[in-house]
Records
---
Amino acid sequence: MEIKDLKPELIWQCFDEITKIPRPSCHEEKIREFLVKFAKDHDIEVKTDKVGNVVMRKAATRGHENAPTVILQAHMDMVCEKNSDVEHDFMKDPIQTYIDGEWVKAKGTTLGADNGIGVAAAMAVMLDKDLVHGPLEALFTVNEEIGLEGAQNIGKDMITGTMLLNLDSEDDGEIFVGCAGGIDTTATFTYNRSCTPEHFKYMKISVSGLLGGHSGGDIHLGRANANKLVSRFMWECSQKWDICLCTIEGGNLRNAIPREAHAVFGIHTDQHAEMMKAIKRFATEVTAEYAGVEPSMNIKIEEVERPEYCIDSDTSIALIRAVYSAPHGVISMSRDLPGLVETSTNLASVKMKDDHKIVVTTSQRSSVESRKEDIAGIVEAHFQLAGADVTHSDGYPGWAPNMKSPIMQISADAYEELFGQKPAIKAIHAGLECGLFLAKYPKLDMVSFGPTMTGVHSPDEQLLIPTVDKFWKHLCKVLEKVANM
């Protein structure tokens, strides 16, 4: 069976089409063209703004024209992560989906259910001729995964509705009414190239097989950070022996916990044997530390040919110390909502550039604006001490919960009527576009909900099939109840 044959057919068929279209962040041209063509092919009103956001409009079911206008909102782009042994070009290749029991998965890559299933749901609503609803707008935003840029720059008059359903959550039975704000901090080291010394052996240490995951939703799970592990071993070596660091890289996206990292370094031939004993001890100790958390962790070291150049000694030591000692993970928990992470930071990536630059990217989140600025400042000060140049992104605001929200109550009642149990009302540590919409449209009443997904932002991403049916029924019921207000 293919995913297009699953039920409810309308939403799964739309999702199947979406998985065939390349849509990395900053490269949403093809998915935007697809959405505009979809609208025109079905006589749906459509418009775009200068940054590439798309809005479709559907008139109310007859007799419900005076109901509040509801905005269905999802983002077009997806996180593009793959296992290192997988050949896949996210700029042109379709996602290879398959069904495994009750789950839909992808072969060695992210699935893109974040937020493809939300896009599919909004498309299905636009198509469904039997649905009872008031006036509808479907808003599809760009570049959500790299800083919510579509929501930040949404065009004037793109949306007119007063209620917004964000279709970008990942847990059935939970309705979200708040989220964290975020800001990215980038540290840039400038290095000089040195000739690699003779009488050294050159090795490559690699960490792979980690779970990674979403730097908001999974940060509290205590998963290993590949950048931290590689820098930890390099620091231990630098404390005992003279080493020369040639390359160090790891991680990819600002909002993904890094799953893989590696470093190429040299060590004097006289000390090579002791270093090999040290890596065995290190691998054994770290594997034991993360037993039960990282079942597929792989730490490997191999000999490589002598590189021509290495990073100058002062910069390499400063970089190793800075990455090893940089904060990562949960900083504080919420005092208002038990179990909610309040503030966190993700040491996301270390990348070497062609212009003698090494760029370390981190991502900070908090549901308290002053704490968000504080952790960003701590990270800045940390890397300044190591001699790096530090910059921050513009960031985005959080979304404060409104426990008197009408759409929250409607959504909760709809879920209970359908499934016989009350949904959990929560805030989420991940960033949602809702905070930015609220800043631009202060009277918006919003909630976020969706089907169950796990492993988001990693090749382990999977979508639980039975919850898609529940998600669809819940969405339709909410729209019907709003239509009858």
---
Amino acid sequence: MLRTVVCVSGGGTNLQAIIDGIRQGSVSDVQIVRVVSNNKNAYALERAAQAGIDAVCVSPRDYADREQFNEALLREVDAAAPDLVVLAGFLVVIPPALIRKYENRIINIHPSLIPSFCGTGYYGLKVHEAVLARGVKVTGATVHFVDEGTDTGPIIMQKPVAVMEGDTPEVLQRRVMEEAEWIILPESLNLIAGGKVKVSAGRVSIAE
């Protein structure tokens, strides 16, 4: 059983996709042992409560400085003894100590086809605004391992999504979630739980 901690800042739709996948049996050998949020008002915490999942809030506002917050975040993740940490819309810079301790055991879902529209400043609606401003015809989502860069870790899975005439950032965001994010994040968890994902020389290989 893959013990999984999910970190999330907002509504938790990707968290819900994982919860639903586990319930429906499309995600197997995965257990969400804790949800961690930096936002006490995040609806993700309510989703966790409804699913009977342990949930905690670790807010930077509750600590004197970033170092204390980082230590608290690492402590709360460690307390759940996870095999995998999933960043599902977690708008926090991950402490280097956490990345080093869980090397190749932290994954992130990003709402574009990396390396396009990623890196510092590209998050949430900002990604979709940039996609529309550039006029690309295809966008999508990426699941990748987390390293000490921003959206630079080894890519596990990607799925393209068409950009439609007349899209607004909000409409496009919803389509990317429905057609890509909510599909490839649970699928990636399945592959990892099944021992099919290997990382070597900065690249991911997936066993048949």
---
Amino acid sequence: MQKVRFEVPGEPTGKGRPRFSKFGGPTSPEKTVLYENLVKTCYSSQCHDFMFEQGRQLDVRIIAYYAIPQSISKKKRQRMIDKIERPLKKPDADNVVKVVLDALNKIAYYDDTQVVDLQIRRFYGENPRTVVTIEDITPSMEVSNGKRT
């Protein structure tokens, strides 16, 4: 089994809605394009441009750490650090997943259709970042004594 892990520094960002103009097709907002490029750069540098083979089944785990607001009580701050109090704010989980998976298309894997298992968790943290783990979970097709393993 192959597995990679990398971190994207800064506040987690979600996929923005495409904008349409009468002169061309849809375009992604600049903030989305910049964050996707950051995800690609972090993946390439931390995972040494490793790419999972086409047709492999992948498990993706994303942990998004949001910045702790400055103007809160010490008690609430500690609850956030202890992962008792969790973020109920934008960007929402599905948009964080979308921006990460789309950014990694043709970089970490052939296509995000290879992702067959997915988890996202959102926490507060003193160091805002997004941690991504990708693991090949394709069952072994080796034959041992006439049986698949």
---
Amino acid sequence: MAEDCGQADRIAFQMIASAGSARSSFVEAMDLAEEGKIREAEEKIREGKEEFRQGHQIHAELLKKMAEGTLGQISLLLVHAEDLMMSAEDFGILAERLIHLEQRYFTEKPGK
């Protein structure tokens, strides 16, 4: 059982790393968009989505193992990892909307 918990924790840490990288990319995208660097912001969105996709893949593997009964109990660390995944997803949605608004602002800005 202790070995199973170790495996679950390793998976959780992988999810946390992916979610953290994704969230950081999304925040960076918003900062770039605010500066009017729309292309760079869109690239950061792509990077964030790839990181999030990797975390989501890891999460799917975790769910499969849990359904098969090959993992132990759900730990607080796994709950935290899932929370970070949801937070990263929310940041991605908000970042895309902010970039769209900033793009409109910089293209419709008076004097352009």
